[in-house]
UniProtKB/TrEMBL annotation:
It comes from the Bacteria. Residues 243-257 have a biased composition (Polar residues). It comes from Phormidium pseudopriestleyi FRX01. This is HEAT repeat domain-containing protein. InterPro entries: ARM-like (IPR011989), ARM-type_fold (IPR016024), DUF1186 (IPR010602). SUPFAM superfamilies: ARM repeat. The keyword Acyltransferase does not apply. Residues 221-267 are annotated as: Disordered. Pfam families: DUF1186. The lineage of its organism: Bacteria, Bacillati, Cyanobacteriota, Cyanophyceae, Oscillatoriophycideae. Coiled coil: none annotated. Keywords: Antenna complex, Phycobilisome.
Length: 267
């Protein structure tokens, strides 16, 4: 792919290729390797939203360019990139790397992203799948910046008051994140959301499971065929290689992924 509109050193990202294992909290890899500075932020932002690159051959080097670009913006702590990153969420819902890494990118940029995430979460122009990225991002932000945990939990909890069909799905994601954050202070709001039919029962039908996960009641015997939110927790605990975001789980190293990195959807 010929991309003359990217200049050195940003252009080097188009030929760098795979870098699957990456630790957002500890790395300054791109800044050190390519000598990137704040001067390159506009080009990096442009590369993140370059759909020609996103649509490139999955086996090409260029297809990795946007991934390297948003990681570089994270290392630069670029607050300028917050809105541009959020603006492409709905376009990149099928891009598994973007969905997995965006929360860690925004957390590394810092708490300056919280107001923009709050606004995105509240925006009815985006569907629940898109807004769930904001939920995930607030969860990671709360874990990596404990001094802002209460603010993030409050934003998530307030959304549970909404009961339209789109919000019912979104509320299911919110409950999962609140439980991951061990947000016991949100228990009454979660219970009210269940009682008020503001939770999509296909996703999250079990208030008892939520109470167990929050440590509010003792677990019953292990379910043979868990469903709803119980299945989500079961899946989470069975796959420790997935990026962990709640406090106490440690590393945010991006796991190795195989196959087409644009086709994984959140179900």
């Amino acid at each position: 792919m010929n991309s003359p509109h990217y200049t050195h050193p940003v252009s080097q990202l188009l030929t760098y290729g795979e870098l699957e294992m990456y630790d957002f909290q500890k790395s300054s890899h791109y800044l050190e390797k390519f000598g990137l500075t704040e001067e390159q932020i506009p080009e990096l932002i442009r590369m993140v939203g370059d759909y020609e690159l996103h649509d490139a051959d999955p086996e090409s080097l260029e297809v990795w360019g946007p991934i390297h670009a948003w990681r570089s913006l994270a290392e630069l702590r670029s607050e300028t990139a917050i809105q541009p990153l959020l603006s492409v969420i709905h376009e990149l819902l099928d891009h598994d790397w973007f969905r997995d890494e965006l929360p860690h990118v925004l957390a590394q940029i810092g708490p300056a992203a919280i107001p923009a995430l709050r606004d995105y979460l509240a925006n009815p122009d985006y569907d629940a799948s898109a807004r769930s990225s904001a939920v995930d991002s607030l969860e990671v932000m709360a874990s990596q910046h404990p001094e802002f945990r209460d603010e993030c939990v409050s934003i998530l909890t307030e959304r549970l008051a909404y009961s339209d069909p789109e919000s019912q799905v979104l509320n299911s994601f919110i409950v999962y994140s609140l439980v991951e954050l061990k947000a016991v202070e949100a228990a009454s709001a979660i219970e009210a959301a269940f009682a008020g039919d503001r939770i999509n029962k296909d996703w999250c039908e079990d208030w008892d499971t939520v109470q167990v996960e929050l440590g509010l009641k003792k677990p019953k015997k292990k379910l043979k065929n868990p469903s709803g939110i119980a299945a989500l927790f079961e899946k989470h605990h069975e796959k420790p290689s997935k990026p962990q975001v709640s406090s106490g789980f440690g590393s945010t190293v991006t796991p190795q992924k195989a196959g087409n990195k644009k086709k994984k959807k959140r179900k």
